[in-house]
Amino acid sequence: MTNRVIRSKKSNISVSIVIPSYNNEKDITRCLDSLCRYTDRSSTEIIVVDSSKDMTAEIISKEFPHIKLFRQKKRTMPGEARNIGVSHASGEVIAFTDSDCEVDGNWPDNGITKLEEGFQILGGPVQNGSSGKFISKADHLLSFRDYLPGGSEREVNFIPSCNLIIRKIDFNRIGGFNENFLSGEDVLFCNEAVKRNMKLLSHPDLRILHHNRTKFKGYLTHQYNLGKYLSMARKNMGTHNTLFHKIKPLVIFIPFIKLIRTYLKILIKHPGKLPGLLLLSPLIIPGILIWSMGYAGPILKNK
Length: 303
Description:
The protein is α/β, with parallel strands linked by helices. It has helices at about 30-35, 55-65, 80-85, 110-115, 135-145, 170-175, 185-195, 215-235, 240-245, 255-270, 275-280, 280-300; strands at about 5, 15-20, 45-50, 70, 95, 100-105, 120-125, 125-130, 155, 165, 200, 210.
């Protein structure tokens, strides 16, 4: 297959886009359409690593034959899929997004100059791509409260992997993503980057749209997994809350802490969104409760 590599309009740096995919036939066309719309097909490398049981791979092969598709025989965790993608990438810079995301015309081009200014990892706002649905709004606020649109350029300690840009040489220095986590692998990845004194920047012009869960069961399952794997990641990093581990009954306070932090973050950073958050409270509160159950699980099981 012919190598096709994005070349930034602002420099001669080549960029490869890597997308992990699993059973996302409903979103994959929208994701790849957005990438193809804003890039020159004759000079674009887009890599999809897919382990789906649905028709995702067939859709890609039929509708996007120029995209490099690597099919996996077994279910592949997101971190492992990204690592596989990078191993086949020819670009100097790797841009990660997910199969349930869309990008705009400035992504990832606006980040190239920041890499040239000395930052090692870049990301930006994650906008809700399914904004008309209440469950999607709740899922989005709980999942990306620190990366809502409207923030300013700032150095951070974490960039979500659905919107992460890094030079391939720095990716290899970190050692890639953890391959055993369903989520939270980006927490471990960024922690390793910070330990190596790398600089992470969230830039308001590096915006993507994320299509969140729209069904109540899917929303709760997602929040449970986010809590569970974040707890496991923090223990892996040695930054877990030792008080909870020493006095396990204190885990009953986790949902109250999560609730207070969520509402305070929105109040301080995005006060205009507070009325919407209050309106969504009948969905936000069960999401926080189930997230807290997921977070507490590894603590109670000493995982």
